[in-house]
Structures are given as C-alpha cells and as structure tokens.
Amino acid sequence: MHVGAAAGRVLADLGVRQVFGVVGSGNFHVTNALIDAGAGYVAARHECGAATMADAYGRLSGRVAAVTVHQGCGLTNAITGIAEAAKSRTPMIVLAAEANDPRSNFYVDQDALARSVGAVSMRVTSAADAVATAVAAYRTAVDDRRTVVLNLPLAAQAEELADGWTLPEAPTLAGVAPPAEDVERLAAELTASKRPVFVAGRGARAPAARDALRVLAERTGALLATSAAAKGLFHDDPWSLDVSGGFASPLAAELIRGADLIVGWGCALNMWTMRHGELIAPGTAVVQVDVEADALGRHRAIDLGVTGDVAATACAVAAVAGTRYRTDDIGRRIAGELRWRDVPFDDESTADRIDPRTVSIALDDLLPTERTVCIDSGNFMGYPSMFLSVPDELGFCFTQSFQSIGLGLASAIGAAIAQPQRLTVAALGDGGATMSIAELDTVARLGPDMMIVVYNDEAYGAEVHHFGPDGHDLDTVRFPETDLASIARGFGLDGLTVRRLDDMDSVATWVAGDRSRPLLIDAKIVDDGGAWWLKDAFRGH
Q: Is the CATH code 3.40.50.970 the one for domain 345-540?
C-alpha cells in the first residue's frame, strides 16, 4: 500500500467516518482510501466550503471530520474555513497534498499557512513514519481539540508501506479534575452569592457538562445563560436566560447585570459575551472555569480561575445548597418576557420590503421544532440568532470565530450531513450568500432537508452602518437588486421571494410538503440602519 492510501486507511480505522473535499491529482489516492474504508464523501465546489462543512459536521456530530485538498492552491483556498475551525477548537484533520520543490507552481509554505491561522501542522515524511504521524494527527485533533493540517508530500505519498502494520492502542483519557482548593473557593463564592449567574460556553457543549451545570444551578439557585456558540444548551430549562452578550434580550441583560457572581463555564467571557464588560456590574465577582489554564483571565480580569473540566468541576461543588436568584417573580418574568419576540417593536415593513424581525418570527412559527439553525456572519445575523428557537445545543451552529462572511451555507451542508433527521436552516446575508453561491450546486446534488433564508438588503450592512453616519460614500458596499430565488431555481432548488408577510403562505406550503427539493427564500428586508447588536459592538469599539 502506498503512503497516501495508507494515511487515509489509518484515519478511517481510527474513526473518521466523513470527509469533505475538492479532489485533484495530489489528494486523489488518500481520498479514495477513506471512501474505500467506509467513510462518506461530499464533493464541495470550493475548498473553503469543504473545510467549513467539515467544521460544522464535527461540531454537531461529535466526530472528527476530514478535509481533503490539493497541494498549494487547494490549501490556500481552504484557509478561511480552516481558520474558523482552528479558532473554534474544532477537532478536524485537513489532508493536504504538498509540493516540496520550490520550483513547482504549487509550492507554498504550508507549515506557515497552517500555523498562521492557529492550526497544528504535521507532516508525513516517509513510509517509516506514515502510520505514527497519521495516528498523532488524529490524537491531537481529539485529545487536544485542535484542527490539524496533515501535509502529505507527493514524493512521500508514492512510497510503499511494508505489510503487517498495525495501529497502536489509544490511551484512555480522563477529564481534568480541578484542584481541591479551587473547588472550595468556588463553593465559598457560591455560598456567599445571593444572585449567581452561570454562563456556559463552547467547553460546556456536552451532555455530561450540561447535566452537571443544571444540577449545580438548581442547588445554588443560579440562573443559566450561554455564549452564542452554546445557544440551546439549556433550551427547556425554566431558569434559562438564553444567550448572554450582544444578542441578549432586555430581560436577560437586566438579570445578568443584576448578578453578584458570574461564573463562566468553558466560556471565554470575551467582549461579545459580556458586551465589552457592560453586563458585569461594579462589585460583581467573576469566576472562570476552563480545561486550559492559559484561557483563564485571557479576555478580562477574574476573581478566581479554576483549571478543570466543566462536568468534573460542577460535580465537585454540587453539594452547595441554596435558592437565591430563583424567586417566583423572576420565574414569571422569564416565562413571559425573555424571548425577543415578546419584546414589542414597531414593524417597519413597507409595500415591497419586510421587517427582518417580522419574517424571523413568521419563520419560527412555521418551522418544525426539530431544526438546526446555521448562521453566517454579517449585520443580519442577530435576527435568526435571537428570533429562531432551537431544541438544544446541537440545533445551533455559529461560525463566527473568524468573523468571515460566506461560511454559513457550507456550515449548513455539514450540519445536514451530521443531523439528517432535522430540517437544516441556513441563515445568510446577501453578501455571504453570493460569496458562497457555488455551493448551491452541492445542496442540489445532496438534496438534504434544507431551507436557505437570505436576509437581503442589497448591501454589506455592517459597513453601511459603520461608515454611513460619518457621511462616507457607500457606493462600494451597496449593490443592485438580485433575484436570488431565480438563481436557486437554476441550480435545481426551489426558490421563493418574500417581500410581505402574506408571501410566507408559499413557505408554509413548502414546509408542510415533502421537502424533496431544498428551498431558498430571498427575503427582501428593510434597511435597518445597522442592527441593534452591531450598534452596541461599534459603540464598544
């Protein structure tokens, strides 16, 4: 067996069951080896799409996904998607063919490329280290929660592996137990607190962590919130405030700001989640729990940092009792006032443009409960994030770690592969939709149960808001009207244009039908002058 094929076979034997990619000469054999070993394969139309599909698949399936790309330009095309995965600490392996001869047109410094976006770079150098390096790449992805670029030089791929190679046994890993003295200090903080709030982040997106936090919150009387990346984690809990930060509803912001103790569980407590610190009242104690010591206090000053696994740490302090912030009055307010759709607003719809809040509420009413909502980046993104409910933490895919537009459609494809039993909803702005439009072909070929909603104001809305108030010419960030519904139909999807609320009747018909053809909705929204969350973010800057 040649090295290239062996690398694919090793990864499949270790547990890679899904691969996304764009195949060229350099990654042909490794891709086929994965497929021959039983892995599913999705051919993307662009390498950035392939990387983002794998990122979303990994987040929602709990399995390591692989991306396969051609040498040089294949990797450079994929680099934005790799950056998003690396910054999100998504366990993912990028199988990158590599040209080592500097005279080759395909030559680039692939090590430097990977490291520049936070990925780990590894390389198979010969048949002698092929199996060990592939195993190390997989273990690094799983054990360290890292995105790994595994470089496969063309010359090394052509070498033959000796017969009889075997995989080493994987080590058994235990959760990181917190130091006993830190557990005691956190228990003391909770005992002294009258109004504790837990904010769970990406590091708490697991059933064991979620359940442990619910038990601890029940015993300590804490209210529950999440970062945007962990939205849905406490969906059905009556004491859940949903998302903390720029997307927090007025009541959620009020109650978080009213806390005398905020505990971040696997959460960075960064400027987005804490609204540039505005959600932390003067005198409020801040505690951060994270499995990585260097994450503690990285974004803001904290009173206590605990190095430990979220589930292990929560279980260790669960004996603390109390019912402080959970009063009957607050319970009634959460039940009746928390959701954004319960907050009154003036509908700004016109004869030919619909208010993005209005269309989002209508969608929330029409969509089945079992849904996965995938959000692209942009001025629009607060509307689907806050007005579309999700059934759990696996119902929300938030690709915002690199803040790149154009990743939402590909992430929805990966999510649909990971959770085919749910309707996948891709929420895009018109900028991100047109940037990733080639992947409509991938959607048409796969035919998933998918709805694509484009919040279309014919502009890069963030830039309009950022520069418009200063009187700058905005011609470079405004565009003529585009019929995205017709473009979708050209790719083989169903396409609908929504300008008014009664146009949603056709959407309701599609939802109630067999949904055999994915649907794109071109929602012509009013210019909101800059979304509320974006105004807050720019004010913070």
A: yes
Among candidate residues 292, 318, 296, 313, the one with its CA nearest the CA of residue 305: 296
The third-level CATH classification (topology) of the domain covering 180-337 is: Rossmann fold (3.40.50)
pLDDT in tens, 208-228: 999 999 999 999 999 999 999
C-alpha 192/C-alpha 186 separation (Å) is 10
Give the integer Cα–Cα distance in Å for 508 and 91.
37
DSSP structure string for 140-209: HHHHTT-EEEEEEEHHHHHSBPPTT--PPPPPPP---PPPHHHHHHHHHHHHH-SSEEEEE-GGG-SHHH
Domain residue extents for the chain:
3-158, 180-337, 345-540
pLDDT tier at 322 (50, 70, 90 boundaries)? low
Q: Helix 356-366 vs helix 504-512: angle between axes, to the nearest 10 degrees?
A: 20
Which of the listed CATH numbers 1.10.606.20, 3.20.20.480, 3.40.50.970, 3.30.300.30 matches domain 3-158? 3.40.50.970
Residue 167: CB atoms within 10 Å: 14
Looking at the DSSP assignment, which residues form a beta bridge with residue 523? 455, 498
pLDDT tens digit string along 165-190?
A: 777 776 666 678 899 999 999 999 99
